[in-house]
Amino acid sequence: MRIVVRFEILYPQAIEFFLNRKLKEYKDLEKLDDYKVKARRLGKNHYFLEMDLFLESNGGGEKDI
Question: Is the pTM of this model over 0.85?
C-alpha cells in the first residue's frame, strides 16, 4: 500500500494519458473536431483537470449542439 501512495505524484500524468487515448478514439470516429486536456497536481490528493472539447456540428449554430 505504501508503494501506491508514493506514486500519487504521477496520477495527473496517468489521468491525462488515458483521457487523451479515449478522446483520440472519439476523434477518429469523427464525434469530436478537436480536444485539449490538462491535468496537474495542486497538493496531496488534490488535482486540477481541464478539458476543452470541440464537438462536431453539422448544421452550425448553438441550437444544434
Answer: no
What are residue 58's phi and psi, to 5 degrees?
A: -85, -45
Rounded Cα distance, 13 and 21, in Å: 12
Diameter of the chain measured on Cα atoms: 53
Q: Which residues contact 55 (CB under 8 A, 6 or more apart)?
A: 31, 32, 33, 65
19 — pLDDT class (breaks 50, 70, 90): very high
**Strand 32-43 vs strand 46-55: parallel, antiparallel, or unpaired?**
antiparallel
What's the pLDDT tens digit per position in 4-18? Answer: 678 888 899 999 999
Q: Which residue has the cell 504521477?
A: 10
